[in-house]
């Protein structure tokens, strides 16, 4: 046997080195966490910094002369005449009055493109609501074009050489003049929330995508929740143990939870669309595919919730002469409900952010109209993000980030709801 | 009468039949001195009537709605003039498409060919008849069901057992959807793939090194036949996955170790949800971030030290994918590490080991199978990830191991081959299914292997 | 010395050791009153103090999460090369006290130890005291055999390796062989040193754990109910082993079994509800207990 003191010395001698190693190891652990969180912080700040300006929009003051000759109709014209009146001319007239003496073709084009094409629609709406306006002089605020908007948000560097800029020198003169006379204003971008997609960045909104997501989630929820819970109840409470079929079902569920979501998209394309003839691009087929994707999550979460209800509760019910079905529906299921709902909400949150499988079933179409039901063609929010991110305009980058912020907002809300449910109803047995 | 109205009426009928059933049960029992004589609670008799009302009629409704369009169009086709019937199938299909769209709109286009107008009229008429028959059939079945259940109601009739049997049956049906889904995936992907392999030999697909799926629309076009050698795709997928795993596995594992072995309760309470946030961010957001921020950053960084970096470099996509997988890896490893019994740690600390010695020499070896399982699941995640690579990786197949170049992956190709308007039968779209099959088989193997390992591992410490 | 009054109380001492007498109803123990007494006692009954002890502990309190106190003012000396048994009903703090002696409680969140604990005159809880070094001197064997998921050889070599005790492989081989021999396991496993330690039987695993502990040649071995998970035959082997190990080590053993304490220890300490009630020569404790709680316990009235 070694000498006592000798051993103590040996151990003591190694201590400094061992503690250095300990410190190093600990540092790497901490560094990993810091790395992940830093990335998260960078990602969120980048998205917010880019997306925040999209919630405001540059508006321009325009003095329009709604004369009957410019519009080509008078106040007594029927609605369809009023609709077809040439509001474009009125807008152009207003612009040329504001900046007189422009003759060069290129500059004229640029002048016309100072305001968004939605200006004419705004006037049309105004006049159709009140035809008496014809023949009067009106001051209106209209949306500026996306390039102008980008400029006023500080995203075009005027020190760059003119050729590299989207806004040329002569335009800068106009814009400076407009700004000096307070004819430019940044307002809350309401159209972003009330209109559908558009080729013109300043007019593009997320309402159609939001409604598409809403209907898709509606389909997913109504199918996945009852089916998932029923499957979980069967597997947890009724299924015979050591049964090959039941084991096979379980292996399938666990495996499906890890199958790439794009494969479900292929399934949706081949089975739902090709075989069953469900219409493409609709919330119905999207909801069906997402149901299959979320089902494993819901089943696994529900089973865990059911499992956590102690067997004593079941035995108490059996002891009172309740049948198995009664025991489940009167006792076990209500007690497991908070856990089941939490799992379902988290599953739905995942489904809300799912993109790839929906590309397969044609939900990438350019949808302007706001879907009215589950069989109208629709885009959904993540797909809208994907589509916008592909557009080259700077203004669309901004919109993409803004749409991401909206998506993240919904996800945060859903997760908060899940956390609240868990906190409020969680029971420790 | 269309399907949704029939459904609505059926539900109303079901609601009524519940009350009738209940009333009937009470009436029957009254003669026998009260409810106590009934085998089941009166409500169960009501439910039983509902079951008999809905089950047969709904099945009939489903079958009829599914098969009637085929029958109708077969009927219309057979009534077509022979000169149209005798042309090839694509022609007939085209013809029928127009007929069906007219019938759907309900308006007959006067400018269409007379034969088409005629067929559309016939189609509408048949559809109308079919709907009437459907409604009559469904309601007759519902009525018969109610009548049948009504007659069976008697005090000693075991309504509860019957209703419960139906409920359990429905639950079994729901549970089997998992099998049906797997089967659906396998069949849909397999059938299309088999058709693809008839056009392109499987060996060429698996071992060919040239991928350019652009097939010519006309035969005289240049680059007429596409080539479908998927090796560059596999290599690209592998390259990006390796980069992703090289980040996710060490960082995720070390995070899990730090959280479960070092961090105080308070740190854990804050950091764990933060990592979950990372896991909850949709992949399309990661993709956007990768394409817009990370890729240009890497490009500038690379160029500042004199490297040529593609703007859609594999490195950028892999990097961001790695970050996406970190929380997945860390939560799986966390579970695995927590499953190592405390006694193991005590034994090591009792010997005078430091924390890191305990972790490296006792906990990690003990948790190794679980960690391998987590790694396999993470790998399956990386291989199947789509949006990040669609948005941040390239489109052209490029056989390279250089992470600074652009590569394409299996999932990117599936998306590009199947988005946009495609003819469903071209080898180009079928190739997507062959890729899907490869992807499914690969991830299936990884998943089953991983789940098995993890399960064995858990049993060891339970 | 004995500050506990033995006369005023609500219970009567059993006059005979007949356990059936202990069950009669009129002998209810008023625990509340006794705890009051224990609180005011300055030291345990019996002979808690020794000259030149290995461990010297005075006024030791242990708290879990501040609110919950597990040990109240324990004063105890543990002598060199003795086997001291700690007995008492479950939850009495005997294991907690044992874990104070090599600072195993450090690994539990929110556990706080106050009071004086000296090993060979050195403060165990002093700032400059290193828990790693301390645990190399005070080894531990646990309730459930917990061999690492490694080979038998690596299990025993674990301690010498992490502490850097050996210069080369043959020295390590010697230590492993020596330790396995001391633990009485060598002959059973000498042909399969590379087999996993988890493949051994429960009793063999526990002896492997003992071999692992003695491989770093500690001065003290703490044993926390080392035989409670074992069958009687394996228990007997371990008890014999403990008796042999007494030659080279100080051994503190926590045990549930009074018979085991009586068989293997020289001194016995009786704990109750976090208080150290009585310490004495094992013989004295079992034949002539001085405190009525000890008496009640060893006569089987509670435990």
Content-based structural category of chain B: mainly alpha
Q: How many domains make up the coordinates of chain B?
A: 2
- The CATH superfamily label of the largest domain in chain B reads MetI-like
Regarding quaternary structure, how should these chains be classified?
A: heterotrimer
For the record, the CATH class of the largest domain in chain B is Mainly Alpha
Distance between the termini of chain C: 27 Å
Number of strands of chain B: 2
Order of helices and strands of chain C: HHEEEEHEEHEHHHHEHEHEEHH
Largest interface (CB < 8 Å):
A-B, 88 and 90 residues
Q: Residue share in helices of chain B?
A: over 70%
User: What is the CATH architecture term of chain C?
Assistant: 3-Layer(aba) Sandwich
- Tell me the major beta sheet of chain B: 2 strands, antiparallel
Number of strands of chain C: 11
Q: What is the CATH architecture term of the largest domain in chain B?
A: Orthogonal Bundle
Give the CA-based shape of chain B: flat
- For the termini of chain B, the CA-CA separation is 60 Å
Summarize the structure in short.
The complex is a heterotrimer of chains A (429), B (462) and C (303). The mean pLDDT of chain A is 89.
Polypeptide structure, described:
- The complex is a heterotrimer of chains A (429), B (462) and C (303).
- Chain A has helices at residues 4-51, 68-71, 79-84, 87-98, 105-112, 118-129, 146-152, 169-180, 191-194, 207-238, 244-256, 261-275, 283-307, 311-319, 324-353, 356-360, 381-389, 394-425; strands at residues 56-65, 137-143, 184-188.
- By secondary structure, chain A is mainly α.
- Chain A has 3 domains: 4-52; 56-192, no CATH class; 207-425, MetI-like fold (Orthogonal Bundle), CATH 1.10.3720.
- The mean pLDDT of chain A is 89.
- Chain B has helices at residues 3-30, 42-79, 82-85, 89-105, 114-152, 159-199, 202-207, 231-262, 265-280, 283-304, 314-338, 342-350, 355-384, 387-392, 410-418, 427-461, and strands at residues 211-212, 227-228.
- The longest helix of chain B has 41 residues, at 159-199.
- Chain C has one domain: Rossmann fold (3-Layer(aba) Sandwich).
- Chain C has 12 helices and 11 strands.
- Chain C has helices at residues 19-22, 31-40, 94-100, 131-137, 152-163, 169-182, 186-189, 202-214, 232-245, 258-264, 282-287, 292-298, and strands at residues 45-46, 55-64, 68-78, 83-87, 111-119, 122-123, 138-141, 220-224, 250-254, 267-272, 275-281.
- Chain C is globular and about 60 Å long.
- The two termini of chain C are 27 Å apart.
- Mean pLDDT of chain C is 85; it is low at 1-26.
- Chains A and C meet through helix 1 of A and helix 4 of C.
């Amino acid at each position: 046997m070694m000498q006592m003191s000798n051993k103590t010395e040996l151990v003591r001698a190694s201590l400094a080195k061992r503690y250095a190693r300990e410190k190093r190891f600990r540092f790497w652990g901490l560094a990993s966490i810091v790395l992940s969180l830093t990335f998260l912080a960078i990602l969120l700040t980048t998205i917010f910094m880019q997306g925040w300006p999209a919630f405001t929009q540059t508006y321009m003051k325009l003095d329009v002369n709604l004369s009957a000759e410019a519009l080509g109709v008078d106040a007594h014209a029927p609605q369809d005449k009023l609709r077809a009146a040439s509001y474009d001319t009125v807008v152009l007239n207003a612009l040329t009055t504001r900046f007189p003496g422009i003759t060069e073709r290129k500059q004229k084009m640029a002048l016309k493109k100072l305001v968004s094409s939605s200006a004419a629609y705004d006037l049309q709406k105004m006049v159709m609501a009140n035809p008496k306006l014809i023949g009067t002089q009106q001051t209106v605020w209209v949306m500026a074009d996306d390039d102008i908007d980008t400029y006023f948000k500080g995203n075009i560097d005027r020190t760059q050489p003119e050729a590299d800029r989207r806004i040329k020198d002569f335009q800068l003169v106009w814009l400076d003049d407009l700004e000096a006379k307070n004819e430019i204003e940044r307002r809350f971008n309401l159209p972003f929330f009330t209109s559908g997609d558009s080729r013109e960045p300043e007019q593009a909104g997320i309402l159609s995508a939001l409604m598409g997501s809403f209907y898709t989630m509606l389909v997913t929820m109504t199918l996945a929740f009852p089916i998932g819970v029923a499957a979980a109840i069967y597997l947890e409470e009724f299924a015979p143990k050591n049964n090959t079929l039941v084991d096979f079902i379980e292996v399938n569920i666990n495996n499906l939870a890890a199958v790439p979501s794009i494969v479900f998209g292929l399934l949706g394309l081949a089975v739902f669309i090709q075989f069953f003839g469900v219409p493409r691009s609709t919330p119905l087929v999207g909801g069906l595919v997402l149901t299959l994707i979320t089902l494993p999550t819901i089943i696994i979460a529900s089973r865990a919730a059911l499992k956590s209800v102690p067997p004593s509760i079941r035995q108490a019910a059996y002891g009172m002469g309740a049948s198995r079905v009664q025991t489940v529906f009167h006792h076990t299921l209500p007690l497991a409900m908070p856990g089941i709902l939490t799992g379902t909400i988290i599953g739905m949150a995942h489904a809300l952010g799912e993109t790839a499988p929906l590309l397969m079933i044609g939900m990438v179409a350019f949808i302007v109209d706001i879907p009215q039901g589950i069989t109208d063609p629709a885009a959904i929010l993540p797909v809208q993000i994907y589509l916008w991110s592909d557009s080259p305009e700077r203004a669309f980058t901004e919109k993409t980030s803004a749409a991401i912020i909206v998506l993240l907002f919904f996800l945060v809300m859903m997760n908060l709801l899940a956390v609240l449910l868990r906190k409020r109803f969680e029971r420790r047995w | 009468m269309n399907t949704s109205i029939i459904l609505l009426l059926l539900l109303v009928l079901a609601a009524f039949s519940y009350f009738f059933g209940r009333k009937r049960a009470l009436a029957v029992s009254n003669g026998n001195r009260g409810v106590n004589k009934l085998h089941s609670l009166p409500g169960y008799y009501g439910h039983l009537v509902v079951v008999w009302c809905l089950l047969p009629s709904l099945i009939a409704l489903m079958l009829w709605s599914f098969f009637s369009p085929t029958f109708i169009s077969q009927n219309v086709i057979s009534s077509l003039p022979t000169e149209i019937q005798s042309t090839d199938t694509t022609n007939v299909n085209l013809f029928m498409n127009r007929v069906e769209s007219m019938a759907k709109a309900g308006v007959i286009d006067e400018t269409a060919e007379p034969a088409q107008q005629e067929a559309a009229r016939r189609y509408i008429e048949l559809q109308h008849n079919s709907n009437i028959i459907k409604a009559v059939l469904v309601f007759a079945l519902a009525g018969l069901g109610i009548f049948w259940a009504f007659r069976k109601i008697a005090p000693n009739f075991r309504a509860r057992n019957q209703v419960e049997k139906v409920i359990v049956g429905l639950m079994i049906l729901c549970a089997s959807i998992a099998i049906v889904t797997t089967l659906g995936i396998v069949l849909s992907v397999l059938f299309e793939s088999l058709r693809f392999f008839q056009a392109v030999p499987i060996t060429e697909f698996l071992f060919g090194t040239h991928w350019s799926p652009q097939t010519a629309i006309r035969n005289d076009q240049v680059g007429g036949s596409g080539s479908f050698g998927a090796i560059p795709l596999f290599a690209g997928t592998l390259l990006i996955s390796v980069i992703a795993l090289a980040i996710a596995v060490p960082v995720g594992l070390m995070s899990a170790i730090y959280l479960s072995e070092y961090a105080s309760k308070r740190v854990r309470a804050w950091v764990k949800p933060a990592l979950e946030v990372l896991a909850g961010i949709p992949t399309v957001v990661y993709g956007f971030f990768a394409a817009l921020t990370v890729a240009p950053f890497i490009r500038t960084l690379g160029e500042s030290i004199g490297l040529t970096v593609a703007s859609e470099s594999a490195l950028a996509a892999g990097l961001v994918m790695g970050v996406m997988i970190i929380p997945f890896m860390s939560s799986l490893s966390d579970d695995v590490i927590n499953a190592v019994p405390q006694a193991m740690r005590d034994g090591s600390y009792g010997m005078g080991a430091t924390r890191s010695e305990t972790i490296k020499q006792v906990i990690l070896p003990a948790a190794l199978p679980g960690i391998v399982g987590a790694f396999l699941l993470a790998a399956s995640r990386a291989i199947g990830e789509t949006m990040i690579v669609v948005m941040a990786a390239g489109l052209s197949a490029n056989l390279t191991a250089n992470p600074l170049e652009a590569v394409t992956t299996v999932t990117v190709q599936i998306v590009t081959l199947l988005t946009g308007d495609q003819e469903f039968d071209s080898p180009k779209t079928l190739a997507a299914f062959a890729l899907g099959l490869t992807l499914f088989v690969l991830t299936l193997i990884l998943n089953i292997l991983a789940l098995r390992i993890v399960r064995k591992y858990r049993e060891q410490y339970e | 010395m004995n500050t506990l009054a033995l006369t005023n109380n609500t219970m009567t001492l059993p006059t005979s050791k007949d356990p059936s007498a202990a069950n009669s109803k009129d002998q209810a123990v008023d625990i509340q009153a006794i705890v009051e007494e224990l609180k005011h006692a300055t030291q345990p009954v019996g002979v808690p103090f020794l000259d030149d002890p290995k461990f010297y502990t005075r006024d030791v309190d242990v708290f879990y999460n501040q609110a919950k106190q597990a040990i109240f003012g324990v004063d105890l000396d543990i002598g060199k090369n003795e086997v001291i048994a700690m007995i008492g009903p479950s939850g009495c703090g005997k294991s907690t006290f044992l874990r104070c002696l090599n600072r195993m409680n450090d690994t539990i969140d929110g556990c706080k130890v106050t009071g004086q604990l000296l090993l060979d005159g050195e403060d165990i809880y002093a700032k400059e005291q290193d828990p790693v070094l301390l645990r190399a001197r005070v080894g531990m064997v646990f309730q459930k055999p917990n061999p690492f998921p490694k080979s038998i050889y690596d299990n025993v070599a674990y301690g010498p390796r992490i502490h850097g005790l050996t210069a080369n492989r043959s020295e390590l081989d010697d230590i492993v062989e020596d330790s396995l021999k001391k633990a009485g396991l060598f002959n059973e496993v000498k042909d399969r040193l590379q087999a996993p330690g988890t493949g051994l039987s429960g009793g063999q695993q526990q002896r492997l754990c003992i071999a692992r502990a003695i491989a770093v040649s500690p001065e003290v071995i703490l044993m926390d109910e080392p035989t409670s998970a074992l069958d009687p035959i394996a228990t007997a082997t371990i008890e014999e082993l403990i008796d042999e190990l007494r030659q080279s080590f100080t051994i503190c053993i926590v045990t549930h079994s009074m018979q085991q304490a009586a068989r293997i220890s020289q001194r016995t300490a009786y704990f109750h509800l976090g208080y150290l009630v009585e310490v004495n020569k094992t013989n004295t404790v079992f034949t002539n207990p001085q405190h009525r709680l000890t008496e009640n316990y060893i006569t089987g009235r509670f435990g």
